[in-house]
Amino acid sequence: MNHCHLLHIEFEYDGHKQIITPVLLQDEQDLILVDCGYPNFIPLLEKAALQNGIAFDLLTKVIVTHHDMDHIGSLAELKRKYPQIEVIAHEREVPYIEGTKKSLRLEQAESTYDALPDEAKPQAEQFIQFLASIETVSVERAVSNDERLPWCGGIDIVHTPGHMPGHISLYLSSSKTLIAGDAVVMEEGKLNIANPQYALDLDEAVRSVHRLLSCDIERLICYHGGLFPGDAKKALLELARKYER
């Protein structure tokens, strides 16, 4: 029994309706959450799990694709409420999640602050304060590219840097499913690079799209956009070519 459950979480952020799609992976021994939303999202995660017939107190692990606020915002709170969970992330992300290095997104926001017009600075200050408030948490297991985790029929780590240096996607060969994280997003039915203007290395992000093409993909799940409805490999190839023009 290996199941992949998409958690459709709808909410309002900064005055706009948003949707994210964390994923629950389940087998006979483990219940694994992939990414966990903004701070205070535990009730939304628990409700979405129950809608899939799953009790969240069975959670054993959380795999973090990267340390952006909408992916680790509830991680420390989850660890307090469910202390049995093991936190897993790429080795390059560990110091940012644990707080031994400053968040790269916080560094990015701080570095652009002085160039902003005065009228934009109050909102930027609020954003910087919010990023600085994200709680840190210990990572129990650091992973690397091409590593295979033994749960849920095998979870292959695909290092997909660009959006963040330690960003990972997950490939489930048993169901030919790719969990992309923010390596790609779905916008109006099409794939795109996630917020290309904020990618820490856009060229690397495009190379990561090529890396995803090495997987035999039948289902593609984007954190922003959910399940891609069309031919995922064809769409990834078109996206890569778009940025090569």
Helix proportion:
25-40%
Q: Roughly how many Å is the radius of gyration?
A: 17 Å
Biggest sheet details: 6 strands, mixed
How much of the sequence lies in strands comes to: 25-35%
Protein described:
The protein is an alpha/beta fold. Helices cover 30% and strands 25% of the residues. It has one domain (3-244): 4-Layer Sandwich (Metallo-beta-lactamase, Chain A), CATH 3.60.15. The protein has helices spanning 42-51, 69-72, 75-81, 94-98, 104-113, 121-133, 202-212, 232-244, and strands at 3-6, 9-13, 16-20, 23-26, 31-34, 61-63, 86-90, 141-143, 148-149, 155-159, 168-172, 177-181, 185-187, 190-192, 219-222, 226-227. The strands form four sheets. The chain has a six-stranded mixed β-sheet with strand order 1-4-5-6-7-8, with no helix packed on it. Strands 9-10-11-12-15-16 form a six-stranded mixed β-sheet. It is globular. It starts with a strand and ends with a helix. Residues 19-224 form the Metallo-beta-lactamase domain. Counteracts the endogenous Pycsar antiviral defense system. Phosphodiesterase that enables metal-dependent hydrolysis of host cyclic nucleotide Pycsar defense signals such as cCMP and cUMP. It catalyses: 3',5'-cyclic CMP + H2O = CMP + H(+); 3',5'-cyclic UMP + H2O = UMP + H(+).
